[in-house]
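Appendix B. Raw example, untouched.
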Amino acid sequence: MCGIAGLHLRDASLQPQLGSLLQTMLCQAAERGTDAAGVGIYGDASLNPAGRATVCVIESPLSAAEAFAAVEAVLGQPVEGRASGQTSVFTAAVAPEVLEAAVRAALPGAVLTSRGDNLSVLKGTGHPDDLATTFKLAEACGYQGVAHTRMATESAVTSTGSHPYSVGPDQCMVHNGSFSNHATIRRELMAEGIAFDSENDTEVGARFVAKQLADSADVEKALRLLCERFDGFYTLLVATENSFAVVRDAIACKPAVIAETDQWVAMASEYRYLTGLPGVESARIFEPEPEVVYAWER
């Protein structure tokens, strides 16, 4: 049992409130999982400054100060960012793949939680309420966010096993449920040269979707292919730089609700997560149908 929440803003005037609205949703979801939590924030200028790439990592072998100095030495130019609990955030005026290479070289053993121009993933073990404070989530701005609270079932309670999973540039996934054939698909992806950071079944789904997107599928097609290939019970929320999408398994075993207004689209495991959103009383609210992909574009 895990909790999912996501918010896609259509009204730019709400962007300064993204973090506070998402924190309310995350903390409502805490009862569905207190092992770990994480958030993916799109468009926050403090995390993803304009003209700079951002890479986030967990399980760094160095202290925050040492890590920033090490990455800067490898990159050969200034590196900025911040420590956010178990997550370290690095930004630099280079392409995302260049910063990623420098971080990997400087911090062997660290696990990337995200990379790109618009997304930062902050996650770790602990109670969601405490992590939201550590992340300074209420201060975050942006145009889109996803959140997850975890009750571990498929792998250990570790920061690497927490969600969101971001394995492609500016992409992330959160998941409630379990994939019953994830080991088979993991082996197939590994045979194609795809490496994994955890034993978590969600990472298999995230890497499958990332592969489809890299092969030129859009989010809707990638999730339709996932439904064809994966067995199990699941509700998924997948975000990219410009999209926000939801899909459930063939019998819609795991709970989900979607609410939509002219100002925003939101998804959550339970309706009560949505009650703090402005104008929710007049929203179109519905339960997503089995194996139907619902997607919105920015």
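End of appendix B.
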